[in-house]
Specification:
The protein has helices at about 10-20, 25, 35-45, 65-75, 90-95, 110-125, 165-185, 210-225, 245-260, 280-285, 285-300, 300-315, 325-345, 345-355, 370-385, 395-405, 415-420, 425-435, 440-455, 460-470, 475-485, 490-500, and strands spanning about 1-5, 30-35, 50-55, 80-85, 100-105, 135, 150-155, 190-195, 200-205, 235, 240, 270-275. Strands 6, 7, 8, 9, 10, 11 and 12 form a seven-stranded mixed beta sheet that branches. It has a five-stranded parallel beta sheet with strand order 2-1-3-4-5, with helices on both faces. About 55% of the residues lie in helices and about 10% in strands. Helix 13 (about 325-345) packs parallel to helix 15, helix 14 (about 345-355) packs across helix 19 (about 440-455) and helix 19 (about 440-455) packs across helix 20. Helix 4 (about 65-75) links the parallel strand 3 (about 50-55) and strand 4 (about 80-85). The protein has about 500 residues and is α/β, with parallel strands linked by helices. The protein folds into four domains: about 1-125, Rossmann fold, CATH 3.40.50.2300; about 135-275, 2-Layer Sandwich (Alpha-Beta Plaits); about 280-390, no CATH class; about 395-420 and about 440-500, Arc Repressor Mutant, subunit A, CATH 1.10.10.60. The two termini are about 35 Å apart.
């Protein structure tokens, strides 16, 4: 089933499209609606729909401008443009932006359903024949291996925003690797490690010839042959020598490959990275400075806290040289900032703000240490500003509180803007400038944090938790939750139960 976003500045038209179409017959599901191009663009980044149905003439960013941006940044998304004007110029521009479906108002149900069914057939056709052999921790012990040496390579593919394109890339990568390893030794076995990550894939290597050096040499040779359309950054685990592979062994190798991949933040000139063990010498190295940050927060010396935090972020972070050290420092700084925000009643805000930096692979999207340092500086400034904003009326603060109190309702940027008598585009811009997170992402973050709490406290089954968090469709809730946490709600709940 594919997901659809409806975009039109007239609410009754959006409602008409949603209510008149037989979505089950078309194989689709509406995941949201937007009142203009700017709101739609934010929702596309957040929800990743496969199809966008948009009017052309809208105030602010119109449908053609949205189509231009989407065709450039999300080429996998299918665009359906609708217009009340039989204008050849619009159709010509639509074709230029890769739009293949152009309908005139009033759109008849049969006509729209015909288009949607055709798009679903095309999507299914593009998904066929892209399967590769897979392995998971649960199947590791049952798999037959002929060699006694194992290794995992983790490939980073951040530019891929569509599941179909991802499968195509993995399929191509797997068969390129297979063709070259088979010529190396017939006993070589390659398996895709099933992990659910959207911007990465891990491959398990098995064969008696395998060493870190041999795999590295092979990857360099292949990179010269096929180029960057298949290879980007690669993390290489240590070699495991054993007669069989267990669940824990696969988990360790996969974790090592991911840790190696994170090292790309230190050197943009390389693309192959090896796992290095953590010696933990850095914990005592920063002990005094971190204690000073904690003390300033307790003593409520806000100006000195801001100054020292800035010094730490700007001068200490860029000098770090190891992944574990960097992860340790980021988490300690977040701890200080959360402690600060709790004092002013903003702990919930900070948890949403720093959610992405608490993921196990949070370092991967950053190009270098300077990029990370700048991001931490922006987020730190946002949190530390809470101590200065309690004594004056602030509409943005009001909106944050409104979202926290109405997250279970069908709220959207346009509806909030109307309630506070603001232009939607202006609100989106100001909210992001003030909070370093878009309003749409903030709404989603609030709902996800609430959902995690409901799951942890065992409020009910997945459907009940979805409804409590503001989602009428439990399947869509599961998709968003997995995108937000990297796990399904059931997996996340099971993990928390095991931790306790």
């Amino acid at each position: 089933m594919y997901h659809v976003l409806i975009v039109d500045d007239e609410k009754y038209i959006r409602r008409s499209i949603i209510n008149r179409i037989d979505w089950e017959k078309c194989g689709g599901e509406v995941i949201g609606e937007a009142a203009d191009g700017e709101e739609a663009y934010e929702m596309i980044g957040l929800y990743q729909p496969e199809v966008v149905i948009t009017d052309i003439r809208m105030p602010g960013m119109d449908g053609l401008k949205l189509a231009e941006i989407v065709s450039r940044e999300y080429p996998h998304i299918k665009l359906v443009l609708i217009s009340a004007y039989n204008d050849f110029e619009y159709a010509r521009k639509a074709i230029q932006y890769g739009v293949k479906e152009y309908l005139l108002k009033p759109v008849m149900e049969e006509e729209m359903e015909e288009v949607l069914i055709r798009l679903e057939k095309e999507r299914k056709q593009s998904e066929k024949n892209y399967s590769v052999p897979e392995i998971s921790g649960y199947t590791a012990a049952q798999e037959e291996f002929t060699g006694g040496r194992f290794l995992v390579t983790s490939f980073y593919m951040p530019e891929i925003k569509d599941e179909v394109q991802r499968r195509e890339r993995i399929f191509k990568l797997y068969h390129i690797l297979s063709a070259h390893t088979e010529s190396k030794e017939k006993q070589t076995k390659l398996l895709l490690v099933r992990d659910g990550r959207e911007d990465q894939c891990s491959v398990l290597w098995n064969g008696n010839w395998i060493t870190e050096e041999e795999v590295c040499r092979l990857l360099k040779e292949l990179e010269r042959q096929v180029g960057e359309d298949v290879f980007s950054f690669v993390g290489i685990s240590r070699v495991l020598t054993t007669e069989r592979l267990e669940e824990q062994d696969l988990f360790v190798l996969q974790a090592e490959g991911l840790e190696a991949l994170k090292s790309k933040i230190f050197d943009r000139g390389k693309y192959l990275f090896f796992y290095e063990e953590d010696k933990q010498e850095y914990i005592s190295k920063y002990k005094n400075e971190l204690l000073r940050l904690y003390d300033l927060s307790v003593q409520e010396e806000w100006e000195r806290l801001e100054w020292l935090m800035e010094e730490f972020i700007i001068h200490k972070l860029p000098g770090v040289s190891h992944v574990f050290e960097l992860e340790f420092l980021i988490q300690e700084l977040i701890f200080v900032l959360e402690r600060h925000s709790r004092r002013f009643g903003y702990l919930y805000e900070t948890q949403v703000l720093f959610h992405d930096l608490k993921k196990t692979d949070f370092l991967l999207p950053f190009e270098n240490l300077l990029h990370l340092s700048r991001t931490m500086k922006e987020l730190s400034d946002t949190v530390l500003s809470y101590s200065r904003s309690r004594d004056r009326y602030d509409v943005i603060e009001d909106i944050r509180e409104y979202v926290q109190g109405h997250y279970m309702e069908n709220i959207a940027v346009a509806q909030i803007a109307k309630q506070y008598h603001l232009n939607a585009a202006y609100l989106s811009t100001v909210f992001k400038e003030r909070n370093n997170i878009s309003l749409s992402s903030y709404i989603e973050g609030v709902r996800m944090e609430k959902a995690k709490r409901f799951l942890k406290e065992d409020w009910g089954n997945i459907t009940e938790v979805a409804l409590a968090a503001g989602y009428s469709d439990s399947n869509y809730f599961t998709k968003v939750f997995k995108k937000y946490t990297g796990m399904t709600p059931s997996q996340w709940k099971r993990k928390k139960e095991e931790e306790n």
